[in-house]
Amino acid sequence: MPWTKETLEAHYKQQIEQWEREGILAKGKNELLAHFRGEHLSRQDAIKAFCYECMGGYGNGADRDCANPPCPLYPYQIYNPNRLKTGGLGNLESLSHGKAYGDKES
Question: In the chain, where are the structural domains located?
Fold first, then answer.
């Protein structure tokens, strides 16, 4: 189904209500809400918003570093301990803390 102005506005309204109700306060929440309200975001703010949404609002209590080197935004992820280093195979050093992508905290 293609997006129309009406369906997009309804979707954004629903998203705002959901994230305000369920999302914890962490880097990216305000940026995500600003996006849904139609405000301009800088590149860095857009990355924060994307990571916040991708990580489910960091609501599961897991480590905020997603440890997802295949993601092209991972070098810019705000909680990546090796932020802004090289992408691709250069991201492997980000996993030096011994956690593999998708592992849950014990």
Answer: 1-58, 63-97
